[in-house]
Design brief:
This protein has 98 residues and is mainly alpha-helical. The protein is built from 7 helices and no strands. 68% of the residues lie in helices and 0% in strands.
Length: 98
């Protein structure tokens, strides 16, 4: 799936996903409405899962580097998404792992 191959690109847009799937933006949203999550939620979850894996692999890696490697545009966006998905900040997660 296009999203799985490109989720770490911070410039990825819904229009790009729709175009890669040869559907309109509206059709893409309707397709995702049939599932549990919308497009943005799925993308956020995939990026947070990548961040979790990176933190587990290298707990000393700077969080800004983790954010960028996971596809987040900013550190703030990363922190908000991470907390929304996990219930804790990236720093708290790292501390609990240690």
């Amino acid at each position: 799936m296009y999203i799985q191959s490109n989720y770490a690109d911070p410039e990825l847009t819904i229009d790009q996903v729709a175009g890669a799937c040869s559907v309109s933006r509206r059709t893409l949203y309707r397709l995702f409405e049939q599932g549990e999550d919308g497009v943005a939620a799925m993308l956020r979850r995939m990026r947070v899962e990548r961040a979790l894996a990176l933190i587990r692999t290298d707990p000393t890696r700077p969080l800004l580097s983790v954010a960028r490697a996971s596809g987040f545009i900013s550190e703030r966006q990363f922190y908000r998404a991470f907390k929304r998905e996990t219930g804790m900040t990236p720093g708290e997660f790292r501390s609990h792992r240690g």
